[in-house]
Amino acid sequence: MDMASTSALQELSHAARAVVAAAGPATVAIGRDGRGSGTVLAEGKILTNAHNLRDRTTQVTFADGRVAQAEVVGADLDGDLAVLAVDTAGIAPLEWASDEVDQGDWVFTLAAGGPRGPRVTTGMVSGRDRAFRGPRGRRVRGSIEHTAPLARGSSGGALLDAAGRVVGVNTHRVERGFYLALPTDADLRRRVDALAAGVTPVRHRLGIALAPGHVAARLRASVGLAPRDGLLVRGVEDGSPAAEAGVRAGDLLVGAAAVDLRTADDLFDAL
Hints:
With 271 residues, the protein is an alpha+beta fold. The chain has helices at 3-23, 186-196, 213-222, 241-244, 264-270; strands at 27-30, 36-42, 45-48, 57-61, 67-76, 81-85, 106-111, 119-133, 139-146, 158-160, 166-175, 178-183, 208-210, 231-236, 252-253, 255-256, 259-260. The chain folds into 3 domains: 3-85, Thrombin, subunit H (Beta Barrel); 106-185, Trypsin-like serine proteases (Thrombin, subunit H, Beta Barrel); 208-270, no CATH class.
């Protein structure tokens, strides 16, 4: 290994140690089983993924071993974000990064690692504008794809730059060796501020359950109907906008707001 390569590895090691020293105390475990991680983002406030929650309260374990019960202040299930309220005992919050990361940038992940302290991994940004499905099936777009490994219990932890600033909120693995994080851009920060203030986001919804596309196609074929793109309604929630509009189970939705409906994502986009 030449001197340049050795120097680069040393710089990366120094950066990783600095990130752990600066951000480790602000990294917490979510749930009794450590099913997720979270980050102290302000005095008394912790940011995590909504899919880590099981109730309106949850156990939080700090890096120093202290255990406390946190309350959910605000949760965005479709956007997979949640803010918890708990005594953070003066832990310095992490800073948002002022710049977005680009492909090829080195990044670090911090996650709760149990009694031995936080777990750190490193990788690089491999892609931008990726998408995944939130806890209720809505597609979440604009995610950062990176190669820093996420072990079990890492979702909800911070994705950081070499200066220890938060550039993303880790969500999950998409395929072997690749992971996604919600970018901490201006839009996410506004949503986090709203959640921290107890404001629940309002998103348009119809109140219907849809059958998978292949099921709809098979049912049409079984009764001799010609193939047609559309979304087959499997059920309608009582009192929902769909019920009030006269939508019934068995209906085929073919368009909404001048958008042809072929997949559930088309309907979400129309809404």
